[in-house]
Amino acid sequence: MFRISNHYISRTVVLLIGAEVFVLMFVVYLGTGLRFFNYVEPFSLSSLLPEAGTFAFVMILCMAAMGLYQLDSRLDMKDTLFRLMPSLLAGFGIMTLIFYLVPDLYLGRGILGLVMLLAFSGILMTRAAFLKWSSLRLLESQAIVLGIGGRAREFVDRAKEGSRHRGLKIVGFVPLADEELQVPASSVLPRVDSLMSLVNRLKVREIIIAIQERRGGCFPIQDLLECKLNGVKVTDSAAFFEREQGKIRVNSLYPSWLIFGGGFDQSLLRTAIKRVFDVVASIILLIITLPVMAVTALCILLEDGRPIFYRQERVGKGGKTFMVAKFRSMRNDAEKGGKPQWALTDDPRVTRVGRIIRKLRIDELPQIFNVLNGDMSFVGPRPERPYFVNQLIAEIPYYNVRHSVKPGITGWAQVRYQYGASVEDAIEKLQYDLYYVKNHSLFLDVIILIETIEVVLLGKGGR
After folding, report:
1. Which residue among 113, 232, 410, 446 sits deepest, i.e. has the most Cβ atoms within 10 Å of its Cβ?
2. What transmembrane ranges does the database entry give (predicted)?
């Protein structure tokens, strides 16, 4: 894993992006060379670097927006083709617009068409080679888990549902005294006198600590120190899941880890950068979506009458409440009993227009004005209603930590998990929210915005 601005990026993803940037730049040179192959004075290929760089940048963004770099989603060639086609169409449109805005980058429609065909073939061949390469596990490193109890069992569950692209394989579990066996007996490694000798024999590069109690004589502190001094990485289970899954496991947390760990940047500089980003992004989105918002308002009015907007109390930064604005997606009598209710799958209270705008997240667009007012941020944890917040704080440890930053229109939990509709969903989403609160940066905000495009276009997670 590479760490960029506190956010972890898979080595495999970085290598794939690097390979595809090379392919995309190469096809610009190749397409231009083929187009002017028969000319007496061939086109100067040495002057194509700005055009090739712009084309590669635009296409990588379009593919990222369609989720082609979310390798944990287990994309096969069929899914790749399904996402690559709209990526190329969007890239063609953006490049055409760039040609008109920046004439110096103009390639010509014939060349661009040829380059797009070559890019389609090149990306498909790159992906096919990547899938084959991934199946060989050439860059996969190995690790052992110290512990065989409840925390260790989480690694067994992860292995069942994890992607082959993660680049790490758990080769076994090291038993400790006074721990109940909760992992498959076949995966338990034999007891050894020295942990370092086991590491050398299995050729592992990392030891993951997955035990609840670390005091007393059962914790092999000297063995771990020896491994650490010999270049073996020693990782806490909470840090491991943060790194590998982009979330912080609530059941692996303890206060000292939150206190002494890194992250949680609330500096004046970070606050100022985030506010500027919020205002600029909100104004751009408002200009782009004004026609969509006008049509949505008209459709709501025609189907179910007034009110068009729905105002509701939500909990913001520091536990302060504010009124959030949304397009009304439910009937006027949705909560006629007066008691708040979780949203349901195929909720009968949702109108026909409401079902569409929820799926496409259009109902969230009026929250742009909450961002401009300063009540919300563009990116952050989803704001919840006080009724549910009080319930969740009582049931879920560390739930209140998410209120240390402003809530957002979109967020890490929204792009990584489905729409929350229960306490169990709230726990799962909290783990992503904690990751964002701990590691938020401008870089992570941009990644979330790019992934939000996929959520909107493919209607992921709406109810």
Report:
1. 410
2. 12-32, 52-69, 81-102, 108-130, 279-302
Please report, for the domain that includes residue 160, its CATH number: 3.40.50.720
Residue ending a domain, among 102, 136, 170, is 136
Residues 152 and 131 both lie in one domain: no
pLDDT tens-digit map of 369-389 = 999 999 999 999 999 999 989
Judgement on whether residues 210 and 357 belong to the same structural domain of the protein: no
Last residue of a domain, one of 136, 155, 183: 136
Answer yes or no: is 446 within a domain: yes
Q: Give the CA radius of gyration of the chain.
A: 25
Q: 38: pLDDT confidence band, cut at 50, 70 and 90?
A: low
On whether both 163 and 124 belong to a single domain, the answer is no
Q: What is the mean pLDDT of residues 84-90?
A: 93
Q: What is the SS3 string spanning the chain?
A: CEEECCEEECHHHHHHHHHHHHHHHHHHHHHHHHHCCCCCCCCCHHHCHHHHHHHHHHHHHHHHHCCCCCHHHCCCHHHHHHHHHHHHHHHHHHHHHHHHHCHHHCCCHHHHHHHHHHHHHHHHHHHHHHHHHHHHCCCCEEEEEECCCHHHHHHHHHHHHCCCCCCEEEEEEECCCCCCCCCCHHHECCCCCCHHHHHHHHCCCEEEECCCCCCCCCCCHHHHHHHHHCCCEEEEHHHHHHHHHCCCCHHHCCHHHHHHCCCCCCCHHHHHHHHHHHHHHHHHHHHHHHHHHHHHHHHHHHHHCCCCEEEEEEECHHHCEEEEEEECCECCCCCCCCCCCCCCCCCCCECHHHHHHHHCCHHHHHHHHHHHHCCCEEECCCCCCHHHHHHHHHHCCCHHHHHHCCCEEECHHHHHCCCCCCHHHHHHHHHHHHHHHHHCCHHHHHHHHHHHHHHHHHCCCCC
Cis, bond preceding 255 (omega within 30 deg of 0): no
| pLDDT per residue as tens digits for the range 246-284 | 888 887 777 777 777 777 778 889 899 999 999 999 999
Q: Is residue 444 part of a domain?
A: yes
Q: What is the pTM of this model?
A: 0.86
Domain co-membership, 237 together with 318: no
Residues 320-373: tens digit of each pLDDT: 999 999 999 888 766 665 566 666 666 678 888 888 888 888 999 999 999 999
Domain range spanning residue 290? Answer: 268-332+341-458
Q: Is the pLDDT of residue 186 over 50?
A: yes
Q: How many domains does the chain have?
A: 3
- Residue 124: per-residue pLDDT: 93
Same domain, 417 and 310: yes
